[in-house]
Description:
- This protein is α/β, with parallel strands linked by helices.
- The protein has a single domain, classed as Spore Coat Polysaccharide Biosynthesis Protein SpsA, Chain A.
- The chain is about 30% helix and about 25% strand.
- β1, α1 and β2 form a beta-alpha-beta unit.
- The radius of gyration is 18 Å and the shape is globular.
- The two termini are about 35 Å apart.
Amino acid sequence: xxHPELTIVSGTRHRRSSxxxxxxxxxxxxxxxxxxxxxxxxxxxxxxxxxxxxxALVSDVLIYHEFPRLFPNQGYNQLCRKCxxxxxxxxNDDAEMAYGLDAxxxxxxxxxxxxxxxxxxxxxxxxxxxxxxxLDGIVYxxxxxxxxxxxxxxxxxxxxxxxxxxxxxxxxxxxYGNDVGLCxxxxxAGFACVGIPGTLVKHHxxxxxxxxxxxxxxxxxxxxxxxxSLPGTILRRLWNGDDPTLQGYARLRExxxxxxxxxxxxxxxxxxxx
Length: 274
């Protein structure tokens, strides 16, 4: 058995067919030794009885059913601690990998030691061109590869607190899956967070009605965060405090500019195109 070079981590809940499709795509697309870890937060059924598909390169597919039940991102967070490989790739359970993405991503990360997080280009199915997203001009990863040694330096498990007047309470935030805040911590620590050319993740955008209705979505979904939204408010308070000039973001953009030789230009919609 070959020693894994990459660990792929995902969280799931109530989306068994989607999870099966994702695992099948990993096995079909893997070109380097890979280990897969899944955090399952389903309460109506468990994926623990699902025997993940395997191959000569994907020798371990481990699915952890959570007792007591946690939200997917929290279980995801805890499961990442089990990563022992140099690189960790995070995906949604409604995503599919393109063939050879693993080798392209790991090769890029090995070549560029200054990169802490490599962002994977992705597209929504059934149509759409590959792109990355950004917030206030700072590129972040919806799906990405983390350099574990670098992440340990910037304290990716560290919990940070911020008071949110809109909620009337303090929120404690740590690494939640593809959290924008994780990428910002990477940049603030002096590492690059940039797109990896040649990568592609296909995203089916499956719905989870329960998650859609609860606060977990509002606090930790990274997409579409205008200044007045709750996630946008949380991030702005974490990085800018009460400064309306967003100087915290200005500092991050300045640090990110050091790696402009690796970065693609951001278009008028705030996205980075492949």
